[in-house]
Here is the input.
Amino acid sequence: MSDRFDSLFGQGLAILFALGLGALVILTVDESPVRVFVTLLNGAFGSPERIAGTLLQTTPILICGIAACISFRGGLFNIGIEGQLFMGGFWATWVGFSFNLPPALHLLLAMAAAVIAGMAWIAIPAFFRARYKTNEVVSTILANYVAILFTSYLTINWFKRSGGQSETPPIFESAYLPELFSFSRLNWGLIIGLVLAIGVYLFFTRTARGYAVSEMGANPKFAEYGGIDIKKQTFLVLIASGAVGGLAGGVEALGVHHRFMEGFAPGFGFDGVIAALLANGNPIGTIFTALFFGALRSGSLLLEVDTTASREIITVIQALIILAVSAQITIRRKASDSTAGERRWKF
Amino acid sequence: MEVLERLLNISLVVATIRTTAPILLVALGGSFTTKAGIFNIGLEGQMLVGAFFAVIGTIATGSPWLGVLCGVAAALTLALIFALLVVSFKANEVVVGLALNILAGGLTVSLMKAIFGTRGSIFGHGLVGLPALRLPNVKDFGWFGQIISGYTPLVYAAFLLVPVLILFYNRTRLGLYIRVVGEKPEAAEALGISITRIRYVSSLLCGLLAGLAGAHLALGYTTMFTENMSSGRGFMAVAILIFSNGDPLKILLGCLLFGFSDALSLRLQTLGISSYLVLAVPYLVALIALFALSYRSRPRVIQETLASMGRALSVKSNTIQPAAATDASKP
Here is the structure.
């Protein structure tokens, strides 16, 4: 318990350190750090609408974060969540506007399309990682670029709304993911994300299969001697991660935009990866880190209105936090003199 | 036939050389870290800050050469942070590399907005590119002259660096040390080579070339800075490094493949093929090459990297492991 407190304390210190560095960066772009932080807070939590806006931004980050957690647990890096999100978003939308079905069934099929698209998009990198150990970090990153260009191509060359901009026709209302409140586009996606986080957490802590995955992440050699089929499990872990990444795209398409367009949901996949890293691969922790990043994102919308700083300053802060935490964990590891270089996904 | 003639001619060769240069520079930079046993996914970010500060430096001083210097300095700073965290603090190299890439993306856009009040791209403001070199007497060589003359200096530097690096790894003490540290860190330890120092040196050499690559992108390849202008070249370089194992000659071949697919895809655009598909070609080529070659060569780099990191970390407790045991673990 005290160890966990220690870790939280260290994490907090690292975040403070990063915010301090962030303040320095803000000073170099000629803005007052206090004003930027106050504006961020105000933009994120200043009113019920803004809180709902923050949660709206949190939702895709959370689901992408869970996708990242699944791969990190197995000692794998799925950095291609952005691409899976785009593919999931596109194909969910396609089901949403191509067919006219009864409400519940339509939504379910559109969601299924998103999940399948996400799985399909990671299948080839996953196969080569499992079979030939082809580095999944690089292959999934490169696949992101292809996914973003490919979905844009499909949108503009095949499914462009007549007379519209670079976007598909809107989906039928039967495929809408219902909204939670009347005053915001915040929808059931958040609930899906929370349930998923708890479910994935329970899977890893309470089931034999989940334990086997964690085992593989912690020590693949040992896991193999223990009788785990590493190749099969590697493939399945990446596919599961891709499925959740696709789901994130489906939630974003069916719950928020109700269509697919160029620049759909930019950066959520990467934010999810960072949120999961910051939570050290723990799905429950990811709920809070995703909320933190969601707040930064939604606060940054006000930032461009009220200050001269650009909203990208929050990406700088996020990166600094990850760097600070990655250094802090090693300092702690050295201090406690525990075994170094354990799990691959740890900082 | 006419289509083929429009696609394949001398200007395609020239275009290939032009598009190869930036990725060749950054990949050769990455060869230092790869050879030293570091998996450096942060090339992308180093290239991006290199490009940005090359532009800033040029606008501030009026000299593109001082601009190049600024770009290199910025990339070196990022490389130093990378080395500090990965080598000294033994933080996870993938995490640090990714975070530095994100930092580079956010920082360049924030600074662009702060300095120029715009987002998107910087051009004008007295920005001048590097001069193109016209080799003397090229007229005598006919088409060959066309191919070898008229590029900016960093293009020549990129291609000349290939033999230089081959000599460096085979004939110099530092080159040998870098290879030993990457391949057999326990042997390096036994020989009294400082693994830490060698890895710092290779990270910084890598930053130097990545900075040059970025500067070339902004002052040679084009004369502007655009948001995220490295557009995945750093990641493609990492893909090349994986299947080339960091060998300069294989890197050259890999980069020429990308340069060619890049140049060809630009041509395809003139034939009316969707620009979205065309732009995806280099990434697809990278992926296919990565998958196809991993079947043959297996990712020795990564495995050895991870294994050697593990060994480097545990080296204090059990100083020298028998080499046979580590060899047996390879597929």
Summary: Chain A is about 75% helix and 0% strand.
